[in-house]
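Subject: for your reference before the review

Hello V.,

The reviewers asked for a structural picture of the protein, and I figured it would be easier to keep everything in one thread rather than splitting it across files. Below is the amino acid sequence we used in the manuscript, unchanged from the supplementary table.
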Amino acid sequence: MATGSNSIFNYLKYDNSLNSENIKDCHLILSLSQTGFSLLVSDHEKRKILLLALKAPLEATEKSWSLGEIEELIKSLPFQIDHCQSTEVLVNFNKFSLVPEHLYSKGSGKSILAYTCRLAKGDHIYTDHWPNSEAMLVYALPLNVMEWCKKSFSTVSFRHQATAVEYLYQLYPKDKTFALLFVENTSADLYLTRNGKVFWYNKFNYQTEEDLLYYVLYTLEQNRFLATELEIKVAGQVLKGEKLYKLLGRYIGSVKELPIPLGFELSSQISPQEMKNQINLIGAL
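And here is what came back from the structure prediction:
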């Protein structure tokens, strides 16, 4: 059954060739946030996407977040994804800070985060290096999430959603400026670069398309990006032609879908639009 139909997942698509044996040579990307959960399985070379799944929103809320629903989703899969050769967990929580690498020193993560967020007891501090932008992303991972991941997967590493966006950017030709708005169910990521290096990144919650428009325009103004001369790429859970595109198009020079990077192949069971909805996962390969 190549296009898995599951009453729990929004969609679950996988290649005809994928089975319990060859999945052992594959790589797993598992994305976790307060409101959504998604999966990507690639081949051994990390160039062909063999499985893609999404569940958003989760029934849990930010104040009462449980791993139980995610465990049930994983159990419903036709394959044992914990048998994959490697597992990268893409964490998408709001406790993070992006700093120039020369301002970061080993062991300073907790004090850096103290300026921007309130850490909970047991939060584990991780750092991702952005060498192309000469920056460090410091972020906190809840203890229960870290322990569950290490218990559930024998070979697991962690990366923040922001780092996936930074690495995704490296897969495209470089212009003087680059702007990406990645939209999820109730949150969005705005990523801006100048001259090939990150200039601004933030994650924010929203309720309406007007919220997104206001935040984008405000951020561009504060960072001296001229909206009328800018091309912004849009990806995630939004379709071309929808209200958001029309709103952005009134104030921003050009609004385009972010294409799938060259060099990646999709299973015939996975549509290009489904991949664009979760294109951030490619940045974690």
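For the response letter, the relevant points are probably these. The first strand starts at residue 11 and ends at 14. The chain has three domains: 11-93+142-168+262-284, 96-139, 173-257.

Happy to draft the paragraph if you're swamped.

O.
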